[in-house]
């Protein structure tokens, strides 16, 4: 695949979090990487909260090295024609491993046992005897034969469900929007249920792997806890906002929830009993950080240099192999006759189209047009101005 030669003036990428060097290396030759950049062409980030950021007109894309995009104002980006990418599945194995690690460790009371043991440090030669006498406080439960409820059977949830089956668990899964790919990947031993209530009623352990949405916000509340088995263990490696903290505190105090294992501690959570707080380590493995950074950097580079789109949240996946011809990309509303109006205008300038593609995603669509000729006329301000006047066009770009 050809890539466009960038202008003598290199474009800038602004990282908002620590991004693995392997990802930044992909961009190093063609771009200036500058954390202080005022007007970057692209932004790379992990969990940085972008909601209060204003965007300059030349910002083309934001790439999230990770899965969750609730830290990015996606709707505003769409209105401004800024593509928002994430890296589906790139950190899923890391999260899965931590979920299963903490599931087993919590079930065996390992965290409490380790904390208690550390406090014996001043007892000298009595320590071995104290250990033997005290260990009965930490008798745990084996997970084999117990039921795990998995809410959200995407990249992480499906992996957790499949491996939990291998560990001897009965697995119940709930995901009303499961993708065909994920359904194919799911072990046949995972019992899919059509209502979350059915999952709540049967699960000894519940792990949640959905994005934070209006539907999932505070889904773990008193009403939900009332439907769960007493002493259920809840694992939350998705987002803290999925849980109503006040209700969780009460459910833990009453033993309704036995333990709450969360990757998203806050002040209220840290004050609760029977919480296992983890400092958002789900995706923090060397492999996952590299996978995410490489994927995000490649997608960002490809979009900036060729206009092709892979794994954007708000743009449709669109690929027209880049041959070095002059190219026009248009992000527009997904309504009838947009392509007709664009091609009509181009024909008025005698511009012959060599190839084109148009894809839609919900309310928006994206069109890439390659021209037969590389004439400078294609870039003429007049054409740009007229394109902008077509109602429904959000952003145009000549490459
Ligand atoms: N702790 C950490 O470091 C990490 C946390 N995450 C969090 O985990 C979430 C899931 O990540 P992935 O599995 O990679 O995403 P994914 O997009 O592959 O899977 C999400 C699944 O949730 C399902 N879903 C959506 N709404 C639902 C609902 N109301 N009820 C049941 N299922 C629903 C979707 O159909 C999809 O199958 C992310 O959105 C993010 O918030 C992701 C990666 C790392
Ligand atoms: O980058 C990280 O460490 C956080 C990952 C995460 O939460 C996500 O991918 O949604």
TrEMBL record:
It is an enzyme of class 1 (oxidoreductase). It comes from the Bacteria. Its EC number is 1.1.1.399, 1.1.1.95. Residues 327-399 form the ACT domain. It holds the Pfam family 2-Hacid_dh. Keywords: NAD, Oxidoreductase. Gene3D superfamilies: 3.30.70.260, NAD(P)-binding Rossmann-like Domain. GO terms for molecular function: NAD binding; phosphoglycerate dehydrogenase activity. It catalyses: (R)-2-hydroxyglutarate + NAD(+) = 2-oxoglutarate + NADH + H(+); (2R)-3-phosphoglycerate + NAD(+) = 3-phosphooxypyruvate + NADH + H(+). PROSITE patterns: ACT, D_2_HYDROXYACID_DH_1, D_2_HYDROXYACID_DH_3. Pathway: Amino-acid biosynthesis; L-serine biosynthesis; L-serine from 3-phospho-D-glycerate: step 1/3. Belongs to the D-isomer specific 2-hydroxyacid dehydrogenase family. PANTHER family: FORMATE DEHYDROGENASE 1, HYDROXYPYRUVATE REDUCTASE. Catalyzes the reversible oxidation of 3-phospho-D-glycerate to 3-phosphonooxypyruvate, the first step of the phosphorylated L-serine biosynthesis pathway. Also catalyzes the reversible oxidation of 2-hydroxyglutarate to 2-oxoglutarate. This is D-3-phosphoglycerate dehydrogenase. It comes from Amphibacillus marinus.
């Amino acid at each position: 695949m050809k890539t466009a030669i960038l202008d003598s003036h290199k474009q800038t990428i602004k990282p908002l979090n620590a991004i693995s060097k392997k990802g930044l290396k992909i961009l190093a030759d063609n771009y200036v990487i500058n954390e202080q950049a005022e007007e970057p062409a692209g932004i790379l980030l992990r969990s940085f909260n972008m909601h209060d950021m204003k965007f300059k007109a030349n910002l083309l894309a934001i790439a999230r090295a990770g899965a969750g995009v609730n830290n990015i104002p996606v709707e505003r980006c769409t209105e401004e024609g800024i593509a928002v990418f994430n890296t589906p599945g790139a950190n899923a194995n890391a999260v899965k491993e931590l979920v299963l690690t903490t599931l087993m460790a919590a079930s065996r009371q390992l965290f409490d046992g380790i904390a208690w043991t550390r406090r014996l440090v001043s007892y000298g030669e009595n320590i071995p005897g104290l250990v033997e006498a005290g260990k009965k406080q930490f008798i745990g439960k084996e997970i084999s034969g117990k039921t795990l409820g998995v809410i959200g059977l995407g990249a992480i949830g499906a992996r957790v469900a499949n491996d939990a089956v291998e560990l001897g668990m009965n697995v119940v899964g709930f995901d009303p929007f499961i993708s065909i790919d994920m359904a194919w990947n799911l072990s046949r031993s995972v019992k899919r249920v059509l209502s979350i209530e059915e999952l709540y009623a049967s699960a000894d352990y519940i792990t949640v792997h959905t994005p934070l949405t209006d539907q999932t916000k505070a889904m773990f509340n008193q009403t939900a806890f009332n439907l769960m088995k007493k002493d259920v263990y809840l694992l939350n490696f998705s987002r803290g906002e999925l849980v109503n903290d006040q209700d969780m505190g009460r459910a833990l105090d009453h033993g309704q929830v036995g333990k709450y294992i969360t990757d998203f501690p806050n002040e209220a959570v840290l004050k609760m009993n029977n919480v296992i707080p983890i400092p958002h380590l789900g995706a923090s493995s060397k492999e996952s950080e590299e996978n995410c950074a490489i994927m995000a950097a490649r997608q960002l580079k490809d979009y900036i240099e060729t206009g092709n789109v892979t794994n954007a949240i708000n743009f449709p996946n669109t690929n027209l192999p880049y041959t070095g011809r002059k190219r026009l990309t248009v992000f527009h509303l997904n309504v009838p006759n947009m392509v007709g109006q664009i091609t009509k205008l181009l024909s008025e300038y005698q511009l012959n189209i060599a190839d084109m593609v148009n894809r839609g995603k919900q309310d928006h669509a994206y069109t890439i047009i390659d021209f037969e000729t590389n004439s400078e006329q294609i870039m003429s301000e007049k054409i740009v101005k007229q394109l902008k006047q077509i109602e429904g066009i959000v952003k145009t770009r000549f490459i």
